[in-house]
Amino acid sequence: MINLVRVGLLTLSWISLVFLPKRSFRKYLPVANLAVSLILLTSLFSLPFKLWVVEKDGIKEKIFTDLSLILGPFFCGTLWIFHLTYGRFGAYILLNMIMNFLLAFPLCTIFQKLKLFKLVNFKPIHIFFTYIIYSIVLYGYQMLLTRPKKLLSK
Predict the structure, then answer these.
(1) Taking the CB of residue 50, how many other CB atoms lie within 10 A of it?
(2) Which residues pair with 53 in a beta bridge?
(3) Does a structural domain hold residue 49?
(4) Residue 54, in any domain of the structure
(5) pLDDT tens digits for range 118-143
(6) Whose CA is closest to 52, among 114, 107, 119?
């Protein structure tokens, strides 16, 4: 069951990208890679600080679980959110707040009931605020990448 959930998250996320314009994929790929990097760092910190554990408690299981979430919904979700909202910060932050709320509260509860992982020292409210901070950093990074070339020459 756990493997089905992991594969499903990864597969459905990537299938959704068929509908994303190629131009948006290329434009927002760097910021999606930064998002993946930030969440990978969080995942690495989860080991010594016991932020969450994988129920089977093996490093191999933790890697598979974390990567299925990071390379699936987080990577693809970042591309979609930027495609739909970039240039309108209010819409961007609102959509991120909605998505982070859904992740932190109902989805984390569901994932824990499915025994995908168990939160230990990283509570849903920490997830929500951590990923809101990440989203602000990501927006700033994308602004740096897309600023007019005129500003770069000064």
Answers:
(1) 12
(2) 118
(3) yes
(4) yes
(5) 999 999 999 999 999 999 999 999 99
(6) 119
